[in-house]
Amino acid sequence: MPNLLRRWSTVVSILVLALGVCSCGGDDGDGGGTTLRVGVILPMTGAQATYGEESWNGMQLALEDLEKAGLPTVKVQVKGDDGKMVEKDVPISLNLILRDEKSTKQEAGTQAKALIEGESAHVLLGSVASSHTKMIFQDARESEVPCISPASTNDTLTIDGGPYTSRICFKDGFQGAVLARFALSQGWKKAAVVVDKGQDYSVGLGNNFEKVFKQAGGTVTFHYYVTEDSDFANVIQQVANDEPAVIFCSGYYTQVGPMIKQAKEKWAGKPIIGGDGLDSPDFFDLVGDVSNDIYLSSHFAADAPEPEVQAFAKRYKDKFGKSPGAMAALGYDVLFVLMDAVKRCDDPFNHAKLAKAIRETKGVKGITGTITLDNEERTPVKDAVIVKVEAGLKFHKKIKAGA
Ligand code: PHE
């Protein structure tokens, strides 16, 4: 259990609430006024539903731990027996309001507005795909409501999103370099990069890979598809014609899985690499029975040797019946980062104050690494892992932050 939990004071809330809580910035009509409304926007249905399911499961585990340790407290005025007002520390309660963005960017924007305007959310968490988070960050920026993405890695997101926006994952400048160096370390000098033109994530990651790969003497050709495609015959043929040493698929598992399956003959024997967008429990099944060596970079691998990773993976499996992917661990960590900020904030119900506390995040120990956000891009510098795809996702090696 992360250390910060132990520092949180446990307060017997029932006793204090029985005395009558009278005022607090978070008054929400429930009489307590200590409820933090956390809008959570995730793809719970549609093509990317495994991302949503895993993130939400991770958040449930975090909630269990946070509640067990005692939620952070806020100061409220309560009426004592003698009728006089006294100040008490009251634990806040967390109301996680989950909204499904249905795996589309439009819906992500719609849900962000609904949470900000309709639910008066104090803070937003979400989403996963970078182009969806971009829509949410736009609303966060305009409404000045803090928003943390658990998993969106596109480089410009937090720069465009402004000071109310942040994320707890590394960005694609790092991830692209990790993949380029990994490919070169395997002796693969000629890469075919296969990009989903409709996804900021895929385009950005492809470009970041190219930059480092070329600088180090590699050559690159680019090939494109769009998110709506399901028949990849053309792009598969173009890649095969190039005779690359490695194929880098920079998109999401929803397209790349079927693509690799369809390329069984044409890409036979070629190593394939990808980014965190392939990290889904469904990827292995979508790919099917192919002979390629497939590696991907990610934030977490359930079978990595660290004891905290092992403990988390076991607990997740016991509760949800499957091994956790990266999104599960990131979902867990994002709630921890938020509650660390809440704890340091004198009024977490105030958007500006909570956003500031989030920006000042330093050294929060999560399942995916240590998270510090007090930098210009409110983006942590973290390690990556390389995962091998064989009967599921298997830990291959760790790549140090900044390496
Ligand atoms: N990094 C991806 C994006 O920005 C999202 C993702 C993260 C997917 C982690 C899977 C696991 O779009």
Describe the structure.
With 403 residues, this protein is an alpha/beta fold. It has 2 domains: 3-170 and 306-382, Rossmann fold, CATH 3.40.50; 172-298, Response regulator (Rossmann fold, 3-Layer(aba) Sandwich), CATH 3.40.50.2300. The protein has helices at 3-7, 13-19, 49-69, 105-118, 130-143, 157-161, 172-185, 200-215, 233-242, 253-262, 283-287, 307-320, 326-344, 351-359, and strands at residues 21-23, 35-42, 73-79, 85-91, 93-100, 123-126, 147-149, 165-167, 190-196, 219-225, 246-249, 272-274, 294-298, 364-366, 369-371, 384-389, 393-399. It has a 7-stranded mixed beta sheet, sandwiched between helices. The radius of gyration is 22 Å and the shape is elongated. The structure holds phenylalanine (PHE). Phenylalanine binds next to α13. Phenylalanine is lined by residues 51, 128-130, 151-154, 201, 276-277, 279, 326-327.
Helix content range of the residues, please?
A: 40-55%
CATH topology assignment of the largest domain: Rossmann fold
Backbone structural class? alpha/beta
Number of domains: 2
DSSP summary: helix tally: 14
Which architecture of the largest domain per CATH? 3-Layer(aba) Sandwich
Instruction: Report low-confidence residues grouped into runs of 5 or more.
Output: 1-25, 27-32
CA distance, first residue to last residue: 28 Å
Radius of gyration, CA atoms, in whole angstroms: 22 Å
Ligands bound to this protein structure: phenylalanine
Number of strands: 17
CATH class category label of the largest domain: Alpha Beta
Percent of residues in beta strands: 15-25%
